[in-house]
Design the sequence.
């Protein structure tokens, strides 16, 4: 039996996924939580109890620490921790950062539950899985000059949203959001956040 932990701040998505994965005879969801901090706390308790290592399926973007930062914390608690990232934001920069952090699976949220179950089995056996389309995009995009947070705010700026809306969607304060936008604009050599978002999108960075 493969033991699973899930983390996703969208309650409906998380509970539906837990229900579907529990239908698999060889998978058991023992914990599903709404944040990276909660996952780290639950993982720590399991590690301290001496129970066998589980597989963590983690949403990339959550309030607080994001999915990749959460995976890094799990690796710190139990070296070799098996983690899978699921995301609605399959940017090349995120994929490269996830792989560098030791994440074993990276796939979009549009993936079926059956495919996710197979990916979980693959990574549990020691393998890796990256969605082929995301992998191809990462190769063609090249290395980004943006930090993950700069990419976040630019993605939310692509439709011309005001700073307050971008901050709310990125779970940041308006002041911090402005700082990230200014830094991204400087790196990309443009005069406003919309131009920065368009240029970053053209390069495949958001």
Sequence:
């Amino acid at each position: 039996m493969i033991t699973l932990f899930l983390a996703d701040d969208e309650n409906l998505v998380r509970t539906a996924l837990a229900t579907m994965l529990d239908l698999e005879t060889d998978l058991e969801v023992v914990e599903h939580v709404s944040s990276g901090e909660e996952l780290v706390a639950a993982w720590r308790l399991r590690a301290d109890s001496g129970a066998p290592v589980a597989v963590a399926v983690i949403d990339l973007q959550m309030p607080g620490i994001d999915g990749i930062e959460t995976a890094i914390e799990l690796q710190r608690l139990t070296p070799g921790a098996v983690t899978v990232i699921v995301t609605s934001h399959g940017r090349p920069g995120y994929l490269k950062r996830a792989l560098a952090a030791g994440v074993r699976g990276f796939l979009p949220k549009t993936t079926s539950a059956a495919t996710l179950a197979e990916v979980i089995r693959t990574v549990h056996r020691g393998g890796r899985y990256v969605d082929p389309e995301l992998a191809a995009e990462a190769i063609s995009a090249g290395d980004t000059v943006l930090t993950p947070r700069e990419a976040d705010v630019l993605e939310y700026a692509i439709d011309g949203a005001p700073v307050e809306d971008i901050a709310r969607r990125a779970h940041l304060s308006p002041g911090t959001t402005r700082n990230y936008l200014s830094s991204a604009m400087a790196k990309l050599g443009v005069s406003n956040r919309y131009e920065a978002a368009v240029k970053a999108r053209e390069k495949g960075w958001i």
